[in-house]
Structures are given as C-alpha cells and as structure tokens.
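Justification of computing resources. Each target in the renewal requires a structure prediction run like the one illustrated here; the chain below, 145 residues long, is used simply to show the kind of job we budget for.
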Amino acid sequence: MPQKKRKVRRQRGSRTHGYGQIGQHRCGGQRGGRGKTGSHKHKWTQTVNLPRKERERWGFRPPARPAVNAISVGDLDERVERLLGEKKARKTRGGVAVDLTRLGYDKLLGGGRVTHPLIVTVGSFSQSASEKIEKAGGRIQQTEE
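Resulting structure tokens:
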C-alpha cells in the first residue's frame, strides 16, 4: 500500500529544508563542527599548539549539585539588629526568633561568634552551629522537609 510522500521529497532543492539560513538543524555550526571535525583544516592551530588535555575531552565531570543557600551564625548574629528593625525577626522571652527559611536560607553553618540568644528556624544546620547557639542561650528548631 503506498505511503504518504515523505517531507524530504518535497524539500529537495531547497538547500536548508525549512530550517533557516543560520542553524540549519545541525547545531554544530557555531563551534565549527562536532568533535574533532576540522582538526586538519580550520582547527589546525588548536591541533598543533594546544596540549592534549586542552584539545580533547578529558576525565570525569561530576553532575552539578543543587546550590545550597547557607549563612553562618556569626553573620546572623551581626544582622540581628537590622532584622529586628526590618521586622524580619521578633523578640521573645527566650531571645530573638529568626525564621531563616522565610528569609531564603537552607542551612545554618557554624562560623563566627554568637552573642545574642537566638531561636532559629531552619531546614538543616551544622553541629558547631547548634553548639554555639545553645551556648549563647538559644535553640534551633528544624523545619519539616
């Protein structure tokens, strides 16, 4: 049974087959070809001048990890007064309550010194951050994930 004529039969003689003048449905044009294409022609200077490691793909590249937005306890302690003024933190009987998840932070790290008693709500935290905050008279509340 005869099939419908293929699109490529209609496109013969049109040079780009409907994919435009620039990209032409190939994706290798802007880099001068794929892989080692042109290494004996227009990429000859790379072949001669660059060392092998720079010329070829080399080694293992691990997949990108998701970015973690973190803040250290020292930075948080310095920003407490400003956060209170902007009403992003509030004073309670136990200390200053700060919700880091609402401020856009994912993790609390333990760098710096803590002088205020802080009640911090955060997704994850380091052990040293927990120790420093408890030593200053505060506590950490972990959010449910």
